[in-house]
TrEMBL record:
Keyword ATP-binding: yes
Annotated protein name in UniProt: histidine kinase
One GO biological process term: cellular response to phosphate starvation
Keyword Ribosomal protein belongs to the record: no
Keywords from the UniProt entry: ATP-binding, Cell membrane, Kinase, Membrane, Nucleotide-binding, Phosphoprotein, Transferase, Transmembrane, Transmembrane helix, Transport, Two-component regulatory system
Gene Ontology MF annotations: ATP binding; phosphoprotein phosphatase activity; phosphorelay sensor kinase activity
Amino acid sequence: MIKTLISIGLWGLLGWACGAWIDPAAGWPIFAFGLILMILVSGQQIARIAKWVKDISRPPPPAVGPWDDILAPIYRQLRKNSAQIEQLNRHVDGIMLAAEALPDGAITLNEEMQVTWCNQTATEHTGLNLQTDRNFSILNILRAPEFALYARQNSWPAPVLLHLSQSGHDKSLLVQLTPYGVGQFLIVTRDVTQIEKMETTRKDFVANVSHELRTPLTVLTGFLETLHDMPQASISDEQRSHYQTLMLDQAQRMQAIVNDLLTLSTLESSPTVEGEPVRVSALIHNALKQVEMLSHDQHIFVQNIAEDLGIVGIESELASAISNLLTNALRYTPKDGTITVSWYTTETGQACYSVQDTGIGIASQDIPRLTERFYRVDRGRSRATGGTGLGLAITKHVAMRHGAELSIHSRLGAGSLFTLHFPAARVVTIKEDRNQAPPVVVAAPLVGATKP
């Protein structure tokens, strides 16, 4: 404004000077010309400003006269606001990325309980599709009666547990509804399927342990009470010896259960180590000697063992797994049955330890549960032969710690085939010790096996 007044004053002064010097009437046209020129220049400046206003992200036009003092602070404020908006956008993007990375699901709702946003985890938990389910009521998406009752409460101090089924898979979700902002709600979902399974397994395990120990304890207590209450003369030495033998059997049974439980606990809690090269053939021959003694020449044992084939692992754990599979085969194979033990490599370079028997076999519905703790196909037979119900569970853990897989193939009444498949990365070749006489090997090829 001041610049404009100064310009008008200067043109007026110029007109007065020209009028005083030339003719008084000549000053007015000069003054009018100056005003018209100022109007034209001002119009051009305004046109440049109008063009800039269409894209204010660019710097304002320079030399626009009195508008310079106005546009400069406006542009500085615009740049400051733009920087703040960009920073806020980065923060928002970071928050959204963090929300997407959350292990828990997050769903935002408006005041009408309609979905406005969700992260990828919530999509996996609930099957919600943001593109098609946005602005739809969450009650029409989570169609669990428990959730409907929960969502209609006035407050939600605790989460609700939902059991959902998606694509044939059962899922347990812990859902917490929380108000935030003005008329907005947040749903947090957590998948507790594995936690529930572990809790169920823990309860079953405690119940099974109690049951397995209760039976021998009851027998042991009964015999002790009998010996304690009855007069010594009323029991013959033969009866006393029989009772003592039975008590010893039950005590040994409890000791076997405790030892197997300790083995399982050690396998689960101790860190996995690479180990060292192990001559597996020696472990197999040692296990065979023990099983043959228990067999009392009532079974036929066939061997197909690669003497120089070894793997990198823990010898004590491998010995336990090898012995468990052999012992199981012996327990469930009747007299004159055949047990075939093989240790060989496959075409893919894997090392396989397999035990095949001609025993009673296993029903197909029982095979998936064989490695569960204390699970028995025939409880009476297993207890009668001294089984604890933990052998295959131990074998499975040993296999997992060595990167191996345990496969089970069986038909009821047609025998069983248990195989440990060790990865090729663990396979090594061990030279035979010349100072030790090699055991006798009788070749008996197994289906799917490659002869060493």
